[in-house]
Amino acid sequence: MSYFEHAGCQLHFEDHGQGSPLLLIHGLGSSTCDWEYQVPLLSRSHRVIALDVRGHGRSGKPREAYSIAQFADDAAALIEHLSLGKVHLVGISMGGMIAFQLGVDRPELLHSLTIVNSTPEVRAKSLGDWWQLGKRWALSRLLSLETIGKGLGRILFPRPEQAELRQKIEQRWPQNDKRAYLASLDAIIGWSVREHLGRITCPTLVISGDRDYTPVAHKQSYVELLPDARLVIIQQSRHATPMDQPEQFNTTLLSFIGSVEKT
């Protein structure tokens, strides 16, 4: 286990393998643990760094408000702490938002960007949006982490053969710090960098599960705003694509990174 201090928080990260650096950033309520199907393979050809976002995993959990910009600044600090230079950055869900923010704020740190089942904005644009965001905000406060974990397990991994994956979510979710979890959710709601996507000039891969929460059309709409981006859809996959379709995900990611490094 490795740690470094930044902006009043001790941040945990894992560091595996050798080669061009690849930084993995998890989603809300997750940790480095959820890259378990990626790290062993990716670290055969790359130096793979997985970060526990502030408020998550083994990282510190300051009792304060969080922001996506703050999370991105932590990631930038890790890149500089390890003297990595440009990295291949991979972020899923909230991690994808952090990756978008870093791409906008510090494009010079990125060799490539991979966004998995994420979005460049979480803003309500209709009554339906307000209802969905409000419901999520309220239920996250009313329900226990155990209850949320069980519900998420059923949503993310509904098939009988996915029982082991459901159990992982059910076991890991209650390990979150509730206050830090809610502070991270609050950081997401109302955030946006959609209007600044033109600043992200590095090659960008957007991966979408065909059954993700947000439709493929939503991803296509922002792919068109990025200067150098492509969209790949992975079939039979929901929101946790690196876990429910690890082989397809890993092959797609390595193929993309390989193509970037050839140019």
TrEMBL record:
List the SUPFAM superfamilies hit by this protein, alphabetically.
alpha/beta-Hydrolases
Q: Which Pfam families match?
A: Abhydrolase_1
Residues forming the AB hydrolase-1 domain are: 21-125
The record's keywords, sorted A to Z, are: Hydrolase
- Gene Ontology molecular function, alphabetical: hydrolase activity
Instruction: Tell me the protein's name.
Output: Alpha/beta fold hydrolase
* Annotated InterPro entries: AB_hydrolase_1, AB_hydrolase_fold, AB_hydrolase_sf
Among PANTHER family, the record links this protein to:
AB HYDROLASE SUPERFAMILY PROTEIN YCLE, MONOACYLGLYCEROL LIPASE
* The UniProt record lists the keyword Hydrolase: yes
Q: Does the keyword Chaperone apply?
A: no
Q: Quick one: a GO cellular component term?
A: membrane
